[in-house]
Amino acid sequence: MSEAIIHTEGLRKVYGSKVAVESLDFNVEAGEVFGLLGPNGAGKTTTILMLLGLTEPTSGRARVAGFDPLRQPLEVKRRVGYMPDQVGFYDNLTGVVNLRYTARLAGLDRREADEAITRSLERVHLTHAGDKPVGTYSRGMRQRLAIAEILMKGASIAILDEPTGGLDPQSTREFLELIRSLKKDGMTILLSSHLLELVQSVCDRVALFNNGRIGLTGRVETLLQDVLGGSHWIRVEATGDNLEAAVARVPGVTKVARDGASLRVEATGDLRADIARAVVNAGGNLTMIAAGHASLEDVYTRYFEGVANAA
Amino acid sequence: MRREGSALSGAATVMAKELADNLSSTRMRLLELLIFVSGAGAVYATIGSVKDLAGLVGEDQFIFLRIFTTAKEPLPSFVAFLGFLIPIVSIALGFDAVNSEFSNRTMSRILAQPIYRDALLFGKFMSGLVTLAVVLAALWIFVTGLGILMLGVPPGTNEVVRGFAFLVAAIAYGAVWLALAMLFSIVFRSSATAALASLAVWLLFAFFWQMVVPLITLAIAPPDMFDPMSQLATINVGMGISRISPNTLFGEATQAFLNPETRSLGPVLASQMQGADRGAPLPFDQSLMLVWPQMTGMIASVIVLFTIAYIAFQRQEVRA
Ligand SMILES: Nc1ncnc2c1ncn2[C@@H]1O[C@H](COP(=O)(O)OP(=O)(O)OP(=O)(O)O)[C@@H](O)[C@H]1O
Ligand SMILES: [Mg+2]
User: For chain B, what is the mean pLDDT?
Assistant: First the structure.
């Protein structure tokens, strides 16, 4: 038995002739925030449903908290809190009544449930809305109610599918704060997203997904290093003719791409001085030059570009 | 594969929640209004003619049962009304049972709780059945009360027993339609489609089945003019086909329970029962024996429909 709290081995799911998920192997350690990252249709939701025992894998196996989701679904579901993408509640019932229903299904008795509901609503700042029908809730409030449900259940693992889908930047930030505080409590969190920044900012480790396969798994910094190598990104804002060609001629520059009004330059080192000189010599007006951070987005683009080219 | 835990843990919770939803919904208020007004109307209109029919109250030992079965033009009898309305109530209770969980996007969240799908389906079915039973029992008590008031005599024990058996038959009949509507609520993701499909089946059995039966019968077992045995066979086939319809089963059960003189059953509609010949009444247990196949037939249909629904639901993808 491995130490991992979530563990999959050759997990595979086929819908008709469409392979949704293929030979999936990954581990999530207790207490970490793990991100499944991939474009639409990559197989993230399918993977999550298999982990919860809500969909039967075509082959392969999974273990969640030491249980097989297929044979011991109740044991798994007792320990896992799930927030589906586009989570829904009974709109005509209040937040508290909605939670009370799931609490009873989760096996809490009436008194335990009411205490847990009060506590978890407070935690997600929904106490004021607890007695209003969920129909009157905003999107952000529903997502937080879903988190309250996970807390109330006393789950040690949270599986969140597109947790910030449809949230505005402010709500997203608050939501990420909430996820961090769950992690502080020792909860293991698996989340799926196609939003790279989101994943980069909260996840300890990520798995890059495409076409049902995991391409890369690892810590965010390690991935940056592995995929991008030692490359540097430099952002150049300048006006003038044919600057791209001029910059591209600078020794050490490997790639120049136009990104709106500015240029994104990839180079083997910090060549800001050389690039500035080249722009000025070419008759351009340099207004800004800065070393950029390599982000997960670069990894993502680079990685999937590679995959697409290989295919 | 062996599964741990009880398949039905959580069913009581689901049932309690659904029951509260059912009983507090506007939909239910409307249905109650519909069924009570038409029931009361039919009975009120009937009671006057029952009095005439019996000449004097006290002469007919089953005068109470006549309230249920006698039609007074232009209204059909109370049981004929129920034959129409019970399916509507059942369909209204079941057509969106499962697909509404998908359209609310609550399905995956609920199924992520430590319960089996069995519990959800069974809880929903039971809540529908209890709601139906409550409505029908209330109606039954209401009509009986109305009868006592207007006739001025209480029903005899025998009449109460038969009336109660009729209530049970009505609930079983409703359960068939409930199971059918729930099956459609699983098969069709859109509740409007499920409602339409259920109503289409209801229309078929309520209005067209009696026309369809002879056509099918003649195709399957054409009678030979000169062979009485083959003519008998044709009749039997016709009755068999007719009994595919829950409406026929309910009509026959009603006839045996509420017309104690009934000694044998043909494919007779509830509305045609008034002319049944008046021989000596059968004791209750004999009447029960007579319609035992009809009663078990309805219950078996419920089980079959529920099982199909269960299998369809187990195979369904949870994602909306
Ligand atoms: N019931 C189904 N029948 C057929 N194909 C399906 C079914 N469910 C999913 N798929 C396919 O499986 C693939 C993976 O889908 P999945 O929902 O897991 O992707 P995802 O990564 O969650 O995407 P998104 O970001 O859009 O939510 C998709 O190509 C989808 O078309
Ligand atoms: Mg998805």
Answer: 85
Asked whether residue A301 is domain-assigned, the answer is no
Q: CA of A75: which chain B residue's CA is closest?
A: B114
A253: domain range?
A: 231-293
Which candidate in A105, A149, A190 is best for mutational testing of the B interface (most B CBs within 10 A)? A105
Rounded CA-CA distance A151/B85 in Å is 46
In a domain, A17, yes or no: yes
Number of domains in chain A: 2
B-contacting residues of A 36-55, CB under 8 Å? 45, 49, 52, 54-55
Same domain, A153 and A114: yes
Other CB atoms within 10 A of residue B277 CB: 8
Per residue in A188-243, pLDDT (tens digit) is: 999 998 877 777 788 999 998 888 888 888 887 777 777 666 677 788 888 888 88
Q: How far apart are CA A267 and CA B128, in angstroms?
A: 69
- Measure A79 CA to ligand 2 centroid, in angstroms: 22
Q: What is this model's ipTM?
A: 0.84
Contact A105 B10 (CB under 8 A): yes
A258 Cβ contact list (under 8 Å, min separation 6)? A244, A264
CA of B259 to the centre of ligand 2 (A): 61
In a domain, A153, yes or no: yes
Is residue A280 domain-resident? yes
Same domain, A152 and A212: yes
